[in-house]
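User: hey, got a sec? need 23S rRNA (Uracil(1939)-C(5))-methyltransferase RlmD folded
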Amino acid sequence: MIHSLGAQGDGIAALPDGQPLYVTGALPGEKVEAQPVSGQKYQLVSVITPASDRVEPSCPLFQSCGGCTLQHMSLPAILEWKTQRVVYALKKAGFSDTPVPAQRQVPAHSRRRADLAIRRNGKNVLVGLHARNSDQVIDLTSCTIMHPNLMAALPSVRQTLQSLEGLRQAGEIQLNLLESGLDILLTTDGPLSSGDRTRLASLSATISAPRISWYQRGTEAYETVAQSGPVYHTMAGVTVALPPGAFLQATAPSETWIQDAVLSALPKKIGKRDKIIELYAGCGTLSLPLAAHHQVFAYEGYAPAAACLKAVAGGTRLNVECRDLNRQPVMGTVLKAANVVVLDPPHSGAGLQMRQLTTGKPQHIIYVSCNPAALAKDAKALHDAGYRLNSLEVIDQFLWSAETEVVCSFTHGSSRRSRSGLSR
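Assistant: Yep! Here you go:
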């Protein structure tokens, strides 16, 4: 009998001695037949008693593609499971009295960015995602997550890659659906020939992608190999010229929800002259809406992202510094002087920056996380430093996966923000 789901979406059952076993494709409440794969991992053979939350997967590639792990589970049940994962992570960190979480979930076919693997397979080229726990690339001929405009471009992309001399065996491609059109960053395992550049320029015109950038594995600098027009995207009413491979939130709705959750979590009495420090600012997803009303000091370690943010900072209340926070965190004495600190760290969490946050103890912290495990670790440091958890919003922008996004606000000291308006 399956009693719960693990962090990766596998069903968990208990052996007679109490040891857990993990069954791919099983759901809580189900009685299943499974066979061992390796160690504690089991593969589902059949479902004897199905759970009420079990549904028919909507994508024909579900069993092979590693992009989705939970298409056999209803979306409302997935959202509730992800919410409980976040609540559990915060309780594990010490916050026993968690506020009622607000919940959001994006629609299907809304993902606007994709990082795909490329492999030569005889005379063909595969462009897609890896099979689960495997190096095998599954050709992405169907997808219930991707925006239709991304999927429409893939046949032409695949055909062009097939003829590239610079693609010997393997590569990667990043696709960003921007306001200006599709932006492509291609990585190959060999140098591009002059013919390759002509082919990529033709692809740019065919799929209306104003820019295709490229770099060879083993190098760091990318090169624009085809550009037919300006590349731009609007965030919070500001048009930004994004660098190749720029990080964006996975969908347009989730970007808006995250921005709204952060703005809603600001203390009510913050003024235009009060200081907000933003860590891991990226290209301005949060910096720009915050700076529309407040003074913001944004720190970002990736130089191209910091440069594009600096380019739009003139005449605004936005100050930008390029700084690797993993090596040179903003010190506690600086953070202490801020009215609010906002951070959206990488998947692994805030690392060395957390020590400075808990040393400086700014009164208000708004933490955006895409990893409940990292959130639990960092939130424990905040709990131990005397912070309270004020608000919590769970945003499922990674449909049918085990990943989730969450926005939490914390307060240090006697001041406590009202919990009103949590369920918007």
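Quick note: Residues 415-424 have pLDDT under 50 and may be disordered. Let me know if you need anything else on 23S rRNA (Uracil(1939)-C(5))-methyltransferase RlmD.
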